[in-house]
Amino acid sequence: MIQNKDYILKLIEAISRGIAKIIGLKEKGQYTKALEELEQYYSEHFDLMHIETESNHLKINTYGELLKHEADINYKLGDTIKAKELYLKSLQSLKKAETESKTFDMKRIGLINEIQESLKLIESLA
Questions:
Q1: To which H or E segment does residue 121 belong?
Q2: Which domains, and CATH codes, for the chain?
Q3: Which class for 101: exposed (0-12), middle (13-18), buried (19 or more C-beta within 10 A)?
Q4: How many other β-carbons are positioned within 10 Å of the β-carbon of residue 11?
Q5: Per-residue pLDDT reduced to its tens digit, 10-44
Q6: Alpha-carbon torsion, ordered 112, 116, 122, 126, to 10 deg
């Protein structure tokens, strides 16, 4: 069943609001609260995304972005092992979204580059 355009637009708006809230908490240094929001977001919203195959890259892209933010927070909290694991999962998701997408997305490319830089930084600390 192909979902209507209004539903997808509302879903994208909800995703954007959730990510903005998480980014805001990160920027304020409220890392524990940001992790709590991520967990709540995963359980309440992410499982509800039922996008048809042709739009699957949206779901994968969102998941990759959320994982990146979670990795950033864990890095700030000093858990480089968990951060590295999450960065790798994020990178894998974003690259898969890049492959499945039929469009070029500068934001996604930027996220991929940021993740690669973060991974290099973690490796240099080891």
A1: helix 106-125
A2: 5-125 (1.10.3450)
A3: middle
A4: 20
A5: 777 877 888 889 889 999 999 999 888 888 877 77
A6: 150
